[in-house]
Amino acid sequence: MSLRTKLLLSLALAIILGISLASWAVYRFASSELETSKRRIMARDVEILAQQTEAWLQKSKSNVVLWADLPIVRQVALKPGDPVATAEACRFFQRIVEITGMYQTINLMRPDAVCLASSIPARIGSKNMQTVYSQRPDFIRAVTGTTSISSMFLSGANGRPIIAISVPVRQSGKTIAVVRAIIDMAFFDAVLLKPERAGSGTSCGIVDPNFTNKLPKNFKLVDEIKEGGYQPLTIPIPLSEFSGEQGFIQYHTSRGEMLAAFHRIKEPGWVVVTQEPLQEVLAPIRNMGRVASLTAVLMIGAVFGVVFAIMNPKLHGILECLNLVQKIGAGNLDARLNLHANDEIGRLAEGLNTMAASLASQRQALEEAERTYRGTFENAVEGIFRADGGQRLITANPSFARIMGYKGPHEIIGCLVSAFFAEPVQHEAFLAELQAQGVVESFELTFLRRDASIGFGSLFARAEKDDHGNITLIQGMLADITEKQKVARERQRAEEAESRLVRSRLRALRYQINPHFLFNILNSIDALAKQAPQRIPDLIRELSRYLRFTLTEPTSALVPLNLELDGITSYLKLEKIRFEDDLVVEIITSPHCGQELVPEFVIQPLVENAIKYGMKTSGPPLRLAIRCTLTGGKGLEIEVANTGKWVGDEEHARDHTGIGLLNLRTRLDLLYPDAYSLTHTNLGGWIIAKVKLPLVKAEGSANAG
Questions:
Q1: What is the C-alpha to C-alpha distance for residues 697 and 596, in angstroms, rounded to an integer?
Q2: What are the two backbone dihedrals, phi and then psi, of residue 377, each rounded to the nearest 5 degrees?
């Protein structure tokens, strides 16, 4: 073998070996860079998802804390059994469940777990609930005065994964009740997790180490919900592998080797996980590796055939390919080869260009993710900041600067965090809790703006410490709740003033009813004394029964219809003694309406007018009919009809009458503004007076909600 041949063969072999090694080096380098970049993206994504999850949970907990402090909730807790307050609280809880769509139930319970009010009123007083809830850890903590979010557990009603937020209702330092809100994990999955999974190969989910997915033996669903179930993330390794607050872990599943990033949430101890098949992470570079490998294989066959004849022209192309490899290795991903040959070197150049373009696209994706994160930071409504161990601001977003009254973050960097606390004692409490717990949640403070004005805020902060327990970094988020607190206080004052005014007016109107009736009875006694004095004792006995009924002080302006009809029956017995056969009475009540709530003495003035003017305008006997019916489940209709004709306003004025009807209309205006009707009609020799009222359900009635 000649020296030329040996040199050519050696050169060919060197070229082949060089290309192969270069391709392998680029592949290994690109693979490492791509996996490292993907880890950074996954770490950022899981941290953002964890922060969103934690913020969502804390917001939900804050909402329940606000409900626990509402006057209607405290009223039911202090005076359990009050039907009106209980019904109002139930309607309030039902409205929350209906509007938000995130709660299965909301219950108000005594410390012994007896249900006082609920979005499902049938649970009030339930012994089964008392037995189950009294053993729940979150309920026990709430009874001791601690607000908490439970771990996931299966609902005893429908077998679905849920969590519970339990908040104590405290009075004079003692827990008098507990508000317990149940959140369906399917809602949590739809709001936070499904949007993160959409459109990507990454899957994410929540792992709860304390979740028990077993139901008692012979468990039977009583309220099954078939659609929108929660699908927990399945991890094929022990949860003990997720050590630390955050990190990465790899494991094998049916989809292949998985790369997972996790971040731990302190309350309620969840682990937020995002995972992606490792082969999908490395898919772009592996495709490029296959292209490069295929190109190298083709070159090996071509080089041995043509290197002897076309060595010099091809060396230039090979050198350019090597140069491109070096540029890619140095980080210049925009470099490209301008070779249009149709041989192996041309295909190698095309493969290297494709690989470079793919790496450039990955870099662009990483830069876009960075811009998205920066945009979230810059455009957040809440004020976000970071401070060093000396509590000096090192980072702040525009919202934090705006809340503090500054034009931009550049004016606030370097300021001490303590300078923004309006009350030093609050800063000391904040720092002490941060030092002790490492995290501060929903810390309410008064802060001092640049113009010396005072604002109110809710602060969340987390601290990083060194090995000696000293704080080295503070990361926080501040929400400005100044206007919210002002509006809440003004609304509370307005509602309280209006409530007191209505109660005073109703009390004054009620005192006008009994004297009006007594005037008529005294007139009847006077008439009997002249015509039939022997009937006076019976009249007085009936009057005694009626007065005992009417003079009992009611606990509310509304009473059940049955109780009102009992009073009218007593009244008509008095009138029957007076008029005997000249008065014929008929009372007809539809089924299921006896427990509907009506204003006290709502029928009395209508019956009084019917008898008084009916006796003047109707031939004997005077016929009187009282009918009470439900109108399609939306209202209650009370009809008082009598034979005779309608007496106009002029005759009322001459007789100085009409006080009862005017009184009734005024009371209805106060109780049902723009929601009732009071009419009269003439029909076939009958005068018909109708009152239509909206339904107000009594606790324990057939339609109570």
A1: 6
A2: -65, -45
Which residues pair with residue 678 across a beta bridge? 691
**What number of other Cβ atoms are within 10 A of residue 233's Cβ?**
18
Interacting residues of 698 by C-beta distance below 8 A, sequence separation 6+: 83, 87, 560, 595, 596, 597, 704
Nearest to 391 by CA among 301, 487, 474, 328: 474
- C-alpha closest to that of 440 among 451, 450, 428, 453: 428
- The residues near 224 (Cβ < 8 Å, ≥ 6 apart) are 158, 159
- H/E stretch holding 256 reads strand 256-264
User: Mean pLDDT per segment of 10 residues, for the chain of length 705 residues?
Assistant: 55 72 74 81 86 89 92 91 92 92 90 92 86 87 92 80 92 92 84 64 79 62 54 75 82 82 86 83 66 67 61 66 80 78 76 83 79 76 90 91 90 91 91 92 90 90 91 92 80 58 49 59 77 80 74 72 88 83 91 86 87 88 94 87 80 57 82 88 91 74 35
The two most distant CA atoms of the chain are separated, in Å, by 158
Please check whether residue 226 is in contact with residue 186, taking contact to mean a CB–CB distance below 8 angstroms: no
Which is nearest to 599 in space by CA: 547, 667, 507? 667
Give the bridge partners for 499, in sequence order: none
> What does each C-alpha distance from 478 to 269, 413, 426, 481, 550 come to in angstroms?
23, 16, 15, 9, 58
Length of the chain: 705
- 208 strand-pairing partners: none
Angstrom distance (rounded) from CA 69 to CA 164: 18
Q: Would you give the DSSP letter of residue 424?
A: H
- CA end-to-end span of the chain, whole Å? 102
Residue 81 DSSP symbol: T
pLDDT at 704: 32
What's the token pair of residue 229?
């179930």
Return d(Cα 74, Cα 566) in angstroms, integer: 34
Q: Which class for 303: exposed (0-12), middle (13-18), buried (19 or more C-beta within 10 A)?
A: buried
353: tokens are 């260009």
232 burial class (0-12, 13-18, 19+ CB within 10 angstroms)? middle
Question: DSSP code of 587?
Answer: E
Find the helix packing angle between 482-531 and 604-617, rounded to 10°.
Answer: 40
